[in-house]
Predict the structure.
Amino acid sequence: MSVVTLERLLQAEGLGSRRECRGWIMAGAVSVNQQPVTDPQQTFPRDGSLLSFNDEQWFSQTKLTVLLHKPAGVECSHNPSHHPPVHQLLPIRLRQRGLQCVGRLDQDTTGLLLLTDDGALNHALTSPKHHIPKTYLVTTAHALTPKMLADLLAGVVLRDDPHPVFAQAAEPVDSHQLRLVITEGRYHQVKRMLAAVGNRVVALHREAIGALTLPPDLACGQWATLSAQQHSLLAN
Ligand code: URA
């Protein structure tokens, strides 16, 4: 297991420059494994050290994935044009880690969003080759008909692309709501699929990525680190 000095560990965790981290350690603001540490050169395992700083406590991780219950009105971009970035919902140490959104949700879409600095995981979840299912609860402007659901399953052609896109599942929930599963991630895909069958999306909520569902106790706007057990659900 790799071992690093505390000042490097804090820097890698997003707390700031090495100099800033050294200052906080020497000022007595940092504890490791519940013990105050004032020597910036003391070494600790890069992964699994219990860090305390600024009333926050967390285990260090080389690769970090955060699960966010995305609210409407925030953009999946570091340089958003019209709305605040989703990163604003995270504490500064996580914003400074350079976490990337795993795929994008529109600013008005709510629900499960992953942010990660694990490039391999990001690729595995977003590459079209891997066909990871994404489950959405879709609310529509007009009543859903059996033909609309059948067309979604049979495949629809979007305006800018001759290749049809298919829903893996399209289950009605009520007259104006369906649960839609897609395995690709094209631009505005769900909204364009519903438009292609003559309807319109008025609300969109992502419930799951693969077998990982949005935890019911994670309130809108809240985040949590992905546990090892939740991580294993993504691999299935
Ligand atoms: N499809 C959309 O149209 N929007 C999203 O945010 C996600 C999927």
In short: The chain has a mean pLDDT of 94. Residues 41 and 49 are 15 Å apart (CA to CA).
